Amino acid sequence: MSKSENRTLNAQCNCGRVQMHAVGRPIVATACYCASCRKAGALLEAIPGAAPVLNSDGSTDFVLFRKDRIDCVRGADQLREHRLTPTSKTRRVVATCCNAPMFLEFTSGHWLTLYRHRLDKDARPPLQMRVMTRDRRADVSVKNDLPSYAGHSGKSMLKLIGAWAAMAFRSPKIDYVKGELDGHGT
């Protein structure tokens, strides 16, 4: 295993009561402009004392990891989910101790999407692309410093499929989230 495949990245909430470890190289680091991420970001930021989620251009920075390479090592009892609708397959998970959004999970997927700003600042992988730019706010112009895609990129989809194949096409369950975020789930 190479040095980057054996590396452990630390993610934690603002107060440090919740800590997660991600082992190995991330699948991809991206900024998402989709309407769901913007809506959820605004809702999560509105929780009293919440940490920022959205960038000034309305995007949200994420780092995707295989589910079998990430774990909550401290504070799982503080994690609560938020779904935009009762039937949503995507849940955003918040550390209730300090209202810091920690990760997003497509529940039937094989990857876990950490909010990039939860990772230790000196170890954050650089962004590799922007996705869902067709959903960006009308006042936002996309810069040319990264590849940008109107939808999801074919390259990131291939990386996700490659990661799934490396996992023998398994989709592990995340069982350390305890329930809905009080008063904020729909």
Automatic annotation (TrEMBL):
Pfam families: GFA. SUPFAM superfamilies: Mss4-like. GO terms for molecular function: carbon-sulfur lyase activity; metal ion binding. Keywords: Metal-binding, Zinc. Residues 9-105 form the CENP-V/GFA domain. Coiled coil: none annotated. Belongs to the Gfa family. This is CENP-V/GFA domain-containing protein. It comes from Ensifer canadensis. The lineage of its organism: Bacteria, Pseudomonadati, Pseudomonadota, Alphaproteobacteria, Hyphomicrobiales.
